[in-house]
Amino acid sequence: MKTFNNLDEAVNSIIESSQKHAKATQTGDYKTANLNYAVINSAVTYLKEKGEIEKLKELLAYNDLSVKLWVASYLIKQNDQKAAAVLEEISAQSIRHHSFHARMVLQDWRKGKLF
């Protein structure tokens, strides 16, 4: 588990690791994708522990789709309607991996499987 020294470091790690995860997934490098997922998860856990999960909301408007996808995937667990809208938007597009991921998160959320 990666450790963070401050909020900005955690947020920047989410941005960088979301982008690296997307590239690795598209090329079939699942080892790298899994490593970056772990960093994203650690950074989100850090923000939660600091009571700063709201910092993720700023990234819902980020100019990279992979960042918006990961952030929305975590925020929807709190029934965040903006996160749901972002996931709906991504799922409606035909973007390999991204659209599928968004649809699966929305499906699980609607069934109450996310916690």
From TrEMBL:
Organism field = Mucilaginibacter paludis DSM 18603
Q: What is this protein identified as?
A: DUF2019 domain-containing protein
Family matches, as Gene3D superfamilies: Phosphatidylinositol 3-kinase, accessory domain (PIK)
Domain of life of the native organism:
Bacteria
SUPFAM superfamilies from the UniProt entry: ARM repeat
Q: By its UniProt entry, which InterPro entries does this protein fall under?
A: ARM-type_fold (IPR016024), PI3K_accessory_sf (IPR042236)
